[in-house]
Write a structure and sequence with these properties.
This protein has 16 helices and 20 strands. The chain is an alpha/beta fold.
Length: about 500
Amino acid sequence: MEKLTHIKEVKKPRIGLYTVGLKHYWNQFPGLKERLLEYGKFIESKLEGMTGTSIFNFGLVDTADSGLSAGDYFNGNNVDLIFCHSGTYVTSDCVLPVHQVCKAPVVVLNLQPAARINYRRTTTGEWLAHCGACGVPEISNAFNRAGIKFRVINGLLGLIRTPDLSLTDEVTADRPEAIKAYKEMEEWIKAASVKRALNHARFGFLGNTYSGMLDMYSDFTMLQAQTGIHIEVLEMCELDRQLNLVTEEEIQDKINEIYDIFEISGDSKADPNAKKPTEEQLYWSAKVAAAQERLVKAYNLDALTYYYHGVPGGEYEKLQSGFIVGHSLLTAKGIPCSGEGDLKTALAMKICDILGTGGSFCEIVVTDYLDGTILLGHDGPFHIGIAKGKPILRGLGLYHGKQGTGVSVEAKVRTGNITTLNMTQTCDGRLKMITSEAESTDGAIMTIGNTQTPVRFKKDPDTYMTEWFAEAPTHHFAMSIGHNASVLDKTADLLTIKHIILNK
């Protein structure tokens, strides 16, 4: 995904790994212990190479005591997720202590080294190097009875060379069972990165929520309790203070950035409200954008939601009229900004951003029954990093349903696979994620200064909307590029948030 330079780096997760086996085997079958440890080191290096994440590899757990030591080791390294590599059979009393001591989520790896053993030549020791699946049911049973949630990945180890001690072909890197297994591991690591990043994230809440949008209202404590985010309540006067600190050099830098990233529109032939932006409007948007970036840095924000209605002709009305351009720039720089005070959608956008898939602010615009698509978009902000072509800036004589006039973004998300993520709230106060995979098309859009992307779901528009509305979503959501339901499902698992995947 193309993007502007992020203002803040996303925190990387800390991943634990250990290999299990039965201590009684080591003297009986020389070389087996070392072989299994090498398999574990291969997984470590493979995951580090794929994700750039540090893997904390404890090594071998083969007794209850070493399980306790592993738990302490993972606690000491503050890991977010643990991979338990089932190297061969192990009694479950070795494994359970690891996760009674360290409460990080666990994924059991049942990765067989070879697609098929050499039946004619295989010895007992050789077979034991391939029987990791044998102990997984026992481990699963122990976890279940101890109330420890677990996940299992089955597949092949994916080696690129056969160990000298092996009696069969262990080169399986290109087999689909290996590729799928590592894709799942990568998704779990990405999900862990979301959880760690949210636990350290600061969300700004500037102004208030659009009056009367009952689906938007959120309990700040509930959001922090369920996701770990800190919410900083901000005042318009603080943004105004930052505005007064902006220098002409900063404004000029923003103007250059605007002309580099956006196409400046002429007058819309269809909508008399949409005009070519004036130099004065562009200057004001650039000045406000500089103030917005100052505010984000002053409060060390990772995301921002905002809305301010204001009174006609007031100073803050003028200030908020310049919001859309700057908030679109911030969104592309890793600081997702959601309009109308929608904090839950800011959370959805931030999850997409952490996963590197974008996350643009959307709602339903209109349905095209001839094309079988639904137009999804908003009056801004827009995620520039996932745009099809250059986003267009239009001057608007009014913002529909809002105060003031100013410059807005007209754009569509690039054509191809997309995923929508809606973050809603249930009657018991719990967050709920609703995900749909679909395809953005290159269909026509209106020239009214709003973001709009024609999206074709796997079901016809009416059937899809019937299923979607039944889940009681909020009316805003985040649009990301790619099909991301699988990694979002793992993210919801680690966040302990209910997740509904529509449109399967």
